[in-house]
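Loading example: each entry is read as two labelled lines plus one structure line.
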Amino acid sequence: MENNGKSDRELDLLRDEIDRADRELIDLLARRREVVTRIAALKTARGLPVYAPDREEVMLRARRREAAERGVHPELIEDILRRIMRDSYRAEGEHGYRRAAPEAWPVVLVGGAGGMGRLFARHFTASGHPVRILDRDDWSRADELLDGAGLVLVGVPIAVTLDVLDDLRGRLPAGAVLADITSVKVAPLARMLEIHDGPVVGLHPMFGHSAPSLAKQVFAHCPGRDAAACSWLLDQLRIWGAFPVTVEPAVHDRLMGAIQAQRHFATFVYGLHLMEEQTDLDEVLALSSPIYRLELGMIGRLFAQAPDLYADIIFGSEVGRDLARRYHRLFARMLDIYESGDRAAFLADFARVKDWLGPLADVFLAESDALLDQARDRLDIRAAGATRRRGDP
Amino acid sequence: MENNGKSDRELDLLRDEIDRADRELIDLLARRREVVTRIAALKTARGLPVYAPDREEVMLRARRREAAERGVHPELIEDILRRIMRDSYRAEGEHGYRRAAPEAWPVVLVGGAGGMGRLFARHFTASGHPVRILDRDDWSRADELLDGAGLVLVGVPIAVTLDVLDDLRGRLPAGAVLADITSVKVAPLARMLEIHDGPVVGLHPMFGHSAPSLAKQVFAHCPGRDAAACSWLLDQLRIWGAFPVTVEPAVHDRLMGAIQAQRHFATFVYGLHLMEEQTDLDEVLALSSPIYRLELGMIGRLFAQAPDLYADIIFGSEVGRDLARRYHRLFARMLDIYESGDRAAFLADFARVKDWLGPLADVFLAESDALLDQARDRLDIRAAGATRRRGDP
């Protein structure tokens, strides 16, 4: 391709205009952030929740309409504003949160030295609660740490949860809320009710401790005893922007068998399979469609995290094991269809599932399309990054 | 929570300031888009590619630095600018693309009436090529349609690809480039070389026809014959912003067995499993972590798309079938570990895979974290949307 001086200069001038606009954008973001800081301070003082979904919806609808009038794609302004709001939630947290509890009771985090413990410690501290950690090596001081506590939150590996609860028996202040964040709920909740006569509530955070903030994060919530006395804790979660979703302990454990145990197990087996097939990942990555790259991402993130956590979730769920067994049998049946080339049988089953999914199939398609577009926005650096890091000695 | 008039007004005033800033943002986007339009016109005139990765990298690095200086998170400005750039690529295409071919040869799309055909038709037309569709019902006019063609691009179901190629034998202009977009490459490429003495090239778009644009889309590229005579086609793909990745046909077909056939088959089986388990999807969605929701998204998008396409990909790949068989055997072995509660064996295998993945595990974790954050940005509407649509009579 031939360039001539004149048009290069023309292009450069236009690119300078783009750069100026983008610097204006930075300026605008900085100013907007200052206003958000003032809103945050006001919300903290007023005790309003960080996340105001109604206000958000109204605001987004208005901006979409105005954008369309100006010839700007409504999807573009919505995506950008949602991205800015995520940043704002984080900023709001930096200035503290309102305390939902009537008093600044001490909060004891049992097993609080881990990642999830740090996340809770940070949030309770930012809400004005003194936080005390009762981890493995602190049991000699347990009575002292538990003295006067308003909340005792147990977050220890599944395998030792019941034992740790037994160790707490007879040591908890009568009015303290006893709560846990174990990833199963039936057994821990029953044991909590057994060892403590006061308010009891079961929680299960549906996210990892690497979460950037609690805004828009889901907690499973299983009421135990004295919901009124536990309500400040639920309010506090909402103030942090989280969604507690109430569910029966037995339903929770059944669902988690599918959502966590079985899926993590299948992902684990798939990672092992890639290794046993001696898959050349660089080769695969070069040709990956965004969707497959996302699937590799799911596998990679499992193996990048704590093996014990996954072992806990998988081996702790009988439901997951039963589901995995039935999935395996179904896989065998479908493999017969694959091996015999029975395309008609495949198409018949395909139609049945499509029918069963109903309108959700299209919802999922649209959702994942949007996400794949976002994944593609960063495709170049991601590809380069993977190759570069992998190539490192 | 008690409100008093004064602070409500204070909050309202601050929110007005946010709204004003967001309207300024819309204005800025509209102005920026005008400049992009002028750049697009200049690029088309000059024949420069839409996608300029080097310029992008330099620009993003500068904006990140300036943002940090202003107290704006560098990740925030990068995410926003990447999102804006995606929009710009689309805008650039609206004003046409430079033609890479030395002449405005007619392009014949064999099987061009489908979604992928429309995508190519739109792009070739926007690049100044007359486009002719040769679909199932047009074979009586085939000779007329093929007359003077500079490119004959075959995109028909795998099952009929070889037959369609046979039908083209002896009908192609000597100098025309013969290309295909079949999702396997060995057999079609061999047949193309057999039926045509002129330039031949195999392509496989690694994306679906719902793609918003070709910017940053990957094509597998298998050279066939006379690469020099085919080079304009590759240049044209690059002008559209796509990445052709060159690969041996046999390697391509092996990789696609893993990337497409086996994975689609596993996803298909998992969808069937969810149905057979009579999974209550509303219940599951309410409690889903973003990662599981993403997995549901993968399943939903498969069943929302053309069953024949998936049947083609799955049944067309012997490699996929062999991989599925070995995956199934491995699953059985691991199920034994699950059933016997052999946690130590699980942890040992976990460590082996983690080791094998090396630094890629962390790369994948970071990537998928970023993507899950984006998924969460839209969590509320998505949940509401799914429930609403599903609840419709």
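The domain at 252-391 of chain B is CATH 1.10.3660.10 (6-phosphogluconate dehydrogenase C-terminal fold).
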